[in-house]
């Protein structure tokens, strides 16, 4: 009887201990190789989350502790868990519309591009607009932009407008030029230009703000069109492993649509939203930032444009292009921009300015510095407000140092370097290319880089971005003479570029960016170790599970 009593006591004690240690969680990820973002080394272990937060990170728990929990358990043996990947610069609505419209991306010649348009047009009604996006001339054997005559050969009955992948140039046919009233006498608008041939006739290429001369005529898109585009973009992003995206530019109607999607429980990834310069900016400056306590839809930033893009020769350069008699264009106006900068500092609004050329970056730094100095005169405890420069592509050495001195965050997209290598040296020459896509130089000065994709300008795939950051070669392994492979990043730096550094750039480092107890349960889970596999294998690794807010939002 005594032996039975002692056995019963031991059994009861064991049960009490097990019950006490039972993990009260909603989701348990066990047996995974965990990169927590705090070091470059993984460990095999378990992550548990309750509601939206991480409650446990550590060694693998015993089966009793896991089995007694009511949590959903995922066995990730042989899989690799990373902090949720963040695209710090992606046009979500544009990504969705790329899925829904004529997509001209990744077509390897002008001839093939025109053939795709020709086939697309076959079942369209007369006078119906043909709008496409994504062509890029950088690898075309024709080595030229398309023009009105190329499109006229397809149709003069349909208005045809095809946007370059960078979003900074639009080629149209004669029908569109006629509808827009563009001829040899049409002057260039501020912040853009109408390309003309040697006889002064428009070629059909409209660059930067000149694009609106044609795009203002496009058929109006509805709110429902926009909502479907956002939903398509979100669906694609979580499939690839993105748990958050920073949207560089948009309207309050966009915000309203995203709020509706959130209320319907379909906002599967987090959004950090920058409103566009102009009326949206003025409204945000008047009303102040919108901070979501759930960290799903935060609005506290304004997107401005200093210049155009390098590929379409709109980036503002200090000296003329090596392959073109021009220095690019400035888009923003001093008398409109500087008052907004001053007001943004007072309101706690972040500024993120598109700047690609060395002149564009210098002017942005000049104007930021002037605004900071004014603020310091009023507030002795002034701290750098984490303002950003989006792209930061071509920066002189003295201006690289000013990024650090002013506390300005470079927001850069590695895939631009591997895409642009097919034309950037032609645009800049071998001397200035040394100042382009200088990730290593900026990091060595102690700066962080918020890594993004600029999709739909680029593909928008985290594997391509990670590969580009560590390889600095195109996806076929090619790189050009003078391409400065010494600017490549380590795997750990690339990981931070898409995790903790975007979190800092969006004031969210206390709640995300690393895998730690108390932070949000956002994870990107791959079937291969991105930190150790050969470079070319990064491109074929697969995201097999995306977790946002403790919920599985994608499973392969």
UniProtKB/TrEMBL annotation:
Ordered alphabetically, the record's keywords are: Hydrolase, Signal
Task: Look up keyword Signal and say if it applies.
Answer: yes
The secretion signal range is 1-19
**Pfam families (UniProt xref):** Amidohydro_3
Q: What domain of life is recorded for the organism?
A: Bacteria
- Record-annotated Amidohydrolase domain positions: 72-554
Provide any one GO MF term from the record: hydrolase activity, acting on carbon-nitrogen (but not peptide) bonds
Q: PANTHER family, from UniProt? A: IMIDAZOLONEPROPIONASE (PTHR22642), PROTEIN LONG AFTER FAR-RED 3 (PTHR22642:SF2)
What is this protein's record name?
Amidohydrolase family protein
Top-level taxonomy: Bacteria, Pseudomonadati, Pseudomonadota, Gammaproteobacteria, SAR86 cluster
């Amino acid at each position: 009887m005594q032996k039975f009593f002692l056995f019963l006591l031991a059994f009861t004690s064991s049960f009490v201990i097990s019950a006490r240690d039972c993990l009260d969680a909603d989701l348990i990820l066990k047996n995974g190789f965990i990169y927590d973002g705090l070091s470059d080394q993984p460990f095999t272990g378990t992550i548990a989350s309750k509601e939206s937060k991480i409650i446990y990170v550590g060694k693998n728990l015993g089966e009793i502790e896991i089995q007694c929990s009511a949590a959903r358990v995922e066995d990730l043996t042989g899989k690799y868990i990373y902090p949720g990947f963040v695209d710090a610069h992606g046009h979500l609505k544009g990504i969705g519309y790329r899925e829904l419209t004529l997509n001209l991306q990744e077509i390897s010649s002008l001839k093939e591009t025109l053939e795709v348009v020709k086939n697309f047009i076959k079942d369209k009604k007369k006078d119906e607009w043909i709008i496409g996006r994504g062509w890029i001339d950088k690898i075309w054997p024709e080595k030229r932009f398309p023009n009105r005559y190329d499109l006229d050969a397809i149709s003069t009955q349909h208005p045809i407008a095809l946007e370059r992948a960078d979003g900074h140039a639009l080629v149209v046919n004669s029908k569109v030029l006629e509808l827009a009233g563009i001829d040899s006498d049409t002057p260039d608008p501020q912040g853009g230009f109408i390309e003309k041939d040697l006889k002064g006739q428009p070629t059909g290429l409209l660059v930067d703000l000149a694009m609106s001369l044609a795009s203002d005529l496009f058929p109006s898109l509805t709110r429902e069109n926009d909502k479907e585009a956002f939903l398509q973009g979100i669906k694609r992003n979580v499939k690839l492993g993105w748990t958050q995206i920073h949207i560089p530019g948009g309207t309050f109607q966009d915000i309203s649509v995203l709020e509706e999607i959130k209320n319907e429980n379909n906002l599967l990834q987090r959004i950090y939203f920058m409103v566009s310069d102009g009326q949206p900016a003025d409204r945000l400056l008047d009303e102040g930032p919108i901070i979501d306590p759930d960290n799903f839809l935060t609005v506290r930033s304004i997107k401005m444009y200093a210049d155009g893009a390098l590929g379409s020769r709109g980036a503002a350069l200090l000296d003329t292009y090596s392959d073109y008699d021009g220095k690019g264009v400035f888009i923003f106006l001093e008398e409109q921009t500087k008052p907004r900068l001053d007001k943004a500092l007072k309101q706690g609004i972040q500024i993120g300015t598109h700047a690609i050329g060395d002149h564009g970056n210098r002017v942005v730094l000049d104007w930021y510095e002037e605004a900071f100095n004014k603020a310091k005169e009023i507030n002795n405890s002034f701290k750098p407000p984490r303002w950003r420069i989006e792209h930061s592509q071509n920066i002189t050495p003295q201006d690289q140092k000013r990024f650090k001195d002013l506390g300005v965050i470079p927001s850069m997209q590695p895939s631009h370097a591997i895409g642009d290598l097919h034309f950037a040296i032609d645009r800049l020459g071998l001397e200035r290319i040394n100042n382009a896509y200088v990730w290593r130089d900026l990091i060595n000065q102690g700066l962080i880089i918020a890594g993004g994709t600029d999709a739909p300008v680029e593909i928008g795939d985290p594997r391509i971005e990670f590969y580009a950051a560590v390889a600095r070669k195109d996806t076929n392994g090619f790189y050009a003479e003078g391409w400065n492979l010494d600017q490549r990043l380590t795997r750990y730096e690339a990981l931070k570029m898409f995790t903790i550094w975007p979190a800092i750039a969006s004031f969210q480092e206390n709640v995300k960016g690393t895998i730690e107890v108390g932070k949000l349960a956002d994870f990107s889970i791959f079937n291969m170790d991105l930190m150790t596999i050969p470079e070319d294998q990064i491109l074929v690794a697969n995201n097999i599970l995306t977790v946002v807010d403790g919920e599985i939002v994608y499973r392969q």
